Structure prediction request, 231 residues.
Amino acid sequence: PTDFNDKRSWTVMKAHADGAAFIGLDNVTISTENISVGLNQAEGTELVLDFKDQPLKVMTGLGSSLMLDFDGDLGEFLEARGFMHVSIGDFFMVEGVLAFQQYQREITLSDESMFMSDLFTLSAAGLNAFVGIGPADSPDAIGFTLNDVNLALAIMKHQNPDITKNWVSLRAHAGQAGFVGSDALNLTASDLTVLMNYVNEGDIVAHLEDDPIIINPEAPLPLDFHGETGA
Prediction:
């Protein structure tokens, strides 16, 4: 604001990187590809900037630009997504497309009450993981594998700091899981689905059937639980 006495300020950011890597720890590899980050924050006010109807084009270099098109209805938020590979020595590996968001959203509960939440979401698409003696792509590897895992997780916290309840909703699907590397143990499973709708205090859970949380529109695993089924 041009008014010197107006202490409000707004920060909006969108960034993209083709790749990034973490260095400094022996036997730990963390690398990313096609990472995008978005941020819409306000200081001194609860009102954020809204670019949904009138996006702002920002030049980032000669012939390149980024479009700020954030929806102000989400309130303050932070988001990041991209392909990530994490390995620790030869005994742990996970890779896939991961994304998280943090924003505000109104939540309906199973007793038909509503509250404004600080919502944290995490999604994974096409995730592969290995735990054991590897490396994972070695024909001599021994351990547990998970392939083609898709996951949607939402953690909802009341904006009133005096309310300590947390609501958690989870939907996950694994194309295949099993134990590899031993002829003596044959353990495999396919098309595994895990569902969870949980509250840490009491039994009033989130009711998302009428207004599902869609974390990743490109590969949706909707969190659409009917609250009457309970935790």
User: Anything to note?
Assistant: The chain has no helices and ten strands.
